[in-house]
Amino acid sequence: MQLGDQRASGNVEDRRGIGMVGGGLGVGGIVVALIAYFLGFDPGTVIDVAQQVAPPRETREATKGTPSDPTGQFVSKILGSTEDVWTKLFSQSRNAYRAPTLVLYDGQVRSACGIAQSAMGPFYCAGDEKLYVDLAFFRDLQTRFGAPGDFAQAYVIAHEVGHHVQKLTGQLQQGEAGRSRGAESSSVRLELQADCYAGVWGYHAGMMKQLDAGDIAEGLNAASAVGDDRIQKQTQGRVVPDGFTHGSSAQRSRWFKRGIESGRPQDCDTFSAASL
Asked: How far apart are CA 78 and CA 133, in angstroms?
């Protein structure tokens, strides 16, 4: 990616290196965290189960602003790019975009959704409008899931920003209402829409000449790498479609590609789609 001229967002909380004392996960909580990591993450349910009686507290305040290290700079510029794109897209429909905050942490973190372990993977918490990312996941993306490249990492951030866009448009609430009614596909439709929104951002990043040759292939590979069928096959040796929470590799790639080819948020209506 070509991010030299991209402004770095200041909407970053750097909690890396901040320890937590008190509370902690029991054996059962750790099991839940691992299952969540492999099968998909729902902060509304998994974190609440994983959190134990006495919640831990952070030992010092987070650093707010733009991190100075190279990886911190990279994610800050990606966040800044998403802010620029979504601010423009929202303004076209005469709406204001409210930017989320990106929280960088390692190991364990407190959010408005509860206490999370890094094993759960990146997530968005609607309660505080923050994205939570342990940068160790980027190493897992390359080594465990076979999805290397800086655009693959950018896709992860853009996907979580996509959930924030869903909150601002009311789609997140719509999907969660469907999930509470027992609609099995609501979670998958939410995740695939966030993939499509990540693609929409990628389209406009390309228009801003921020993409290199091969970046789109990296994004498609990353979307495919974290498909439910591929992860289930890797972790349990078989595929159980009824257990999908994020969509299959083919579905995730298809919706990401749809967004990156059109650049139009209205083309990401997974809730009205007859088939995913």
From this structure: 13
Helices 215-225 & 249-262 angle (0-180, nearest 10):
150
Whole-angstrom distance, CA of residue 240 vs CA of residue 262: 32
Q: Which of 121, 147, 118, 110 shows the shortest CA–CA distance to 13?
A: 110
Residue 20's Cβ-side half-sphere holds a number of Cα atoms within 13 Å equal to 20
Which residue has 């997974």 as its token pair? 270
Helices (H) and strands (E) in the chain, counts: 10, 9
Question: In one letter, which amino acid is 11?
Answer: N
Q: Is the pLDDT of residue 55 over 90?
A: no
Least confident of 38-47, 188-197, 206-215, 262-271: 38-47
Question: Is the pTM for the entire model greater than 0.90?
Answer: no
Length of the chain in terms of residues written = 276
